[in-house]
Amino acid sequence: MKTDFSTFKHEVFSGIDRKISYLFWLFVSNVFFLTNIPYPNTWKVLLLRLFGAKIGQKAVIKPWVKIKFPWNLTLGDHVWLGEEVWIDNISMVMIDSHVCISQGALLITGNHEYTKSHFPLISKPIIIEDGVWVCAKAVVTGGVTLKSHSVLSLACIATKDLDSYYIYGNFPLEKLKPRIIS
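User: That's the sequence. What structure does it adopt?
Assistant: C-alpha cells below.
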C-alpha cells in the first residue's frame, strides 16, 4: 500500500454557521492577537469569550498568540500565555488556574493516522491542571494531561501524561526530579 491523499477529507467542523464564525475569527485573530500592538488583555479576553472561549479572571495574553478555535478553549484564573504560543485546538484544550504557557510553546490536539492510506485526521483533547509550567518552545500533544504543578522543560515534547509536582526534561522525555515549591 501507498499513501493516497486523493481520498483525504479535511473536515474539522461542518455547517455554514461554524464556517462563517471561523472566517470572522480569522479576521479578529489577525487584527488583535497576531500583532505587535499591545492591546489590553481585557479586550482579548472579551473577544475570545465572544467566540465561545471560557476564561476565568486575570488572563494574560501576550502578542502573537495563535488560537485556532476559541470555542474549544477553556482557561482558568490567572493563566499566562506568552508570546508566540500556538494553541492548535481542533479538540478541546482545558487549562486550569495559575498556569504559565511560555513563549513559543505549542499545544497541538491534531495528528494523522499514518498507517492508513488516506491519512485521516485524528484529534484528542489536552488537559493542563493547576500550577503547571510549560516552558518556552515546549510541545504538548493531543490526549495528554499535564497534572498539577508539573513542569515541561525548555523545548521538550510531552506525548504522555506528566505526574503531579515533577519536572520533566531531556529527549526522550524523562522525569528529572520533584518540583518543590516553597
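The chain has a mean pLDDT of 95.
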